[in-house]
Amino acid sequence: MPKKYHIEVRPTPNRYPQIGRSGIVDWGEGCLKCPSCVKHECVYNVYRQRTFSAETNADTIDELCKDCFRCVQGCPKRLIHKALNPEWENLGDDVYTPEVVAANWEQAKTGKIPVSGAGYGGAFVGKGFDSMWTDMSEIVRPTRDGIHGREYISTVVDLGRWPANLRFDERGNLSTQPLPMVRVPIPVLFDIPAFGDMSSRVWHAVALAASELGTLAIIPQAEVEPLSDLRSWLVPLLETDGWDRKWIRQFRMVELADSSDTEERFDRIKRIDEGIIVSVRVPATVDAATRAWELTDHGVDIIHFVADERGYEPGVPDARHLKDVIRAQHGALVERGVRDEITVMASGGIAMAEHVIKSILCGANVVGIDLPLLLALECRLCRNCAEGGECPVRLSTIDPRWGAQRIVNLVGAWHNQCLEMMGAMGIREARRLRGEEGRVMFFEDLETDTFARLFKGREG
Hints:
The chain is an alpha/beta fold. The protein has 2 domains: about 70 residues, Alpha-Beta Plaits; about 290 residues, Alpha-Beta Barrel (TIM Barrel). About 30% of the residues lie in helices and about 15% in strands.
């Protein structure tokens, strides 16, 4: 059993005021100058702590306010109002909703699981991962608690390839040579964001966080050289063949973008050092099953299925969600009898801790997170950088150590949520989660099972 894994989180303040869901509109005209003003009685003391940011043109009270409405209800002249912040409404998209963005900001700041205390008031079902429900039947057993230590739950996963079978010699000794393997303590790797102000400081923060967490970070080949001290935690995406034997042997794992000469490039790397894990980056489409078989048959260690930043098939009309792609690819590899030989990684649209567990339940071994890394650094997903504009939070100026701690905090909060989910499902090993569809319900399947027979046409 691997040693218990612990992530050291430390509260790390924001550099800029956060965008709050609602803002306080505070009218001065008509004030009665009450001896005991409701502002002075604020239990959270937000009126005394408030400041004004000239850089972002924001009042920090919007971030500090806890929405208790005591001041709104207590002012005798009703001069204090709460109004929905239009900047909040424009955050993110339908996957990275304002609530998801704010939750990631808070986790990066505190390292704690965000708790609303007001229950869930949203829709019963949604798109993508929101159409999956995990089986939490074991939550009634108080011993299944991975955070507080009453029962050990392991999140360790192995990256690499497994032999199809084992061979023994005449004396009963194992004669099959072990294949290269990299073990990471969490089923999460860092992937390359689809957009972002990716300066050298940001890459440094990502690499530092990977080293502190014991995981790996996939980064462009061109960004590797300044981070040579952290190369044990880096996975260069080899964009060119401009590297030599000595350079590539520094890394435990490398990644190739799938192309017509992938197999040739893979063979070249393995001839240099068979111990290097090679991952192949493949667009996450259901139609890629044939390509997955080819790569598996050729001996590739990891197939990395990459969806777009929202978690859908890239460049495909009527695109399907990553969960459906993973299920299809997992099923295809199982049908061919090769699923246990290869590692499957999935990335794109992994926006919350629960998406990590759900991706693995669909059939992945490990997931890659991308945009949440930028959210940890206060990114607002405005996409100004993608259009050549200026970053409103100046990611290129961050202190790498500040950024690394924010990422560590975010992953620490996600890790605790993963432990809670695994404990509630009665699963103590992350490796056992893979393809465990018996622990999950899919809305589409339930809908079909329930209503298909009701609307089925009569025979004849």
